[in-house]
Design goal:
The protein contains 15 helices and 5 strands. With 354 residues, it is mainly alpha-helical. It has 2 domains: 264 residues, no CATH class; 71 residues, no CATH class. Helix 3 packs across helix 13 and helix 4 crosses helix 13. The longest helix is centred in the last third of the chain and has 29 residues.
Length: 354
């Protein structure tokens, strides 16, 4: 019987993360002096969603394979002899794998552009929205036409309200909303016309995230349109609608497809693990004598397989993982070829008994 997983530590870590974020909100807004009470709903949803994200991440790290990669990755990264090379490797992986997403570019330019628009649109929006909601960043009037920005209560810079910089700053979320809308439109078009995507997609997993992002962008742009061109017409209703959609998305984030955005940076440790494994002592196949994988990787694989409840021990004292892929195929073929003979011997023995 499979033992039940204990989630107690993950729950405690999630509660601690939510409490830490709450403390940061209070401290960063100077004891709520610069906090806007109208954004209380966003704040509560953010705190709860952050705790849920940490909980999900902690559960993810409890999986045997993920835990092995996580621990080995950090152990290899902290190696003093290879610290410079490790930092360089992590930087290349972050830029190429996360920021530029070269692995998606190999699949096609349009698909890469779609991911870039959605990813950077969401990231820039988050970097703008959350500090404003938490009171970490606020603006104050300075003179007749000036604004001064404050970060954690400290003055940063001032700008003319009619300057290009101020206009871009105050409309940055409109630009990111357009980026996400274009990216989501490309994604939905692909899922409606690409046969490979149609065969594998699921509505809740593949369409709902895009629909939520589109709803956030549309309602956000409607707020701008209402305030600039409609003299505030239906602004309160649009604001409540926007807030409801944002809160729904925040609650969906830890348990839907968008969670892979949180998981993706962990690939830095995985690629570091794979690169360093090529430099370590290699395991030798006991059948053909060929080096086929790092001993560290093989030992970790045996540990993970054992924790998953599988037993691949052989009669000769080895385990199946000790053999190279070619020898595994040969051994499997020999085992299959022996099956008809064993069945024939059993059949002859049964006839003799009769």
């Amino acid at each position: 019987m499979k033992a039940q997983t204990n989630h107690r530590s993950a729950i405690l870590i999630a509660l601690a993360a939510s409490a830490a974020l709450t403390a940061l909100i209070i401290a960063g807004s100077r004891n709520l002096e610069h906090y806007d009470a109208a954004l209380f709903g966003y704040t509560v949803a953010s705190v709860v969603a952050f705790g849920a994200i940490v909980f999900r991440y902690a559960i993810w790290l409890q999986r045997p394979s993920t835990r092995v990669y996580w621990r080995r990755g950090w152990a290899l990264f902290r190696n003093r002899k290879s610290l410079v090379a490790n930092v360089s490797s992590a930087g290349k992986t972050f830029v190429g794998g996360f920021a530029l997403q070269k692995f998606i570019y190999r699949r096609g330019f349009s698909r890469w552009l779609m991911h870039q628009l959605i990813m950077w649109g969401c990231i820039i929006s988050a970097l703008i929205t959350f500090p404003l909601v938490f009171g970490w960043v606020h603006f104050e009037l300075e003179g007749e036409r000036g604004y001064r920005a404050y970060v954690f209560g400290f003055a940063v810079n001032s700008m003319d309200a009619r300057s290009v910089i101020a206009w871009v700053t105050f409309h940055a979320l409109d630009f990111t909303a357009i980026m996400v809308l274009i990216g989501c439109g490309m994604a939905i078009h692909r899922r409606l016309h690409d046969r490979g995507a149609i065969a594998l997609q699921q509505y809740l997993l593949d369409f709902v995230p895009h629909l939520l992002l589109i709803a956030i962008c549309v309602t956000g742009l409607m707020l701008t349109a209402s305030s600039l061109w409609l003299h505030g017409y239906m602004y309160s209703f649009i604001s409540l609608s926007h807030q409801a959609v944002v809160i729904m998305t925040l609650f969906y984030l830890p348990f839907g497809k968008l969670f892979h955005v949180i998981q993706r940076p962990a690939s830095i440790g995985v690629e570091l693990y794979q690169r360093r494994a090529r430099e370590l002592p290699q395991a030798i196949c006991p059948r053909c004598g060929v080096e086929f994988v790092a001993e560290m990787w093989l030992d970790d694989l045996k540990t993970v397989v054992g924790k998953l409840g599988f037993d691949y021990r052989l009669a000769n004292g080895h385990v199946l993982q000790d053999y190279c892929p070619r020898c595994k195929r040969v051994m499997r073929g020999l085992a299959y070829s022996a099956l008809p003979q064993s069945k024939e011997n059993v059949f002859r023995g049964s006839r003799g008994n009769l």
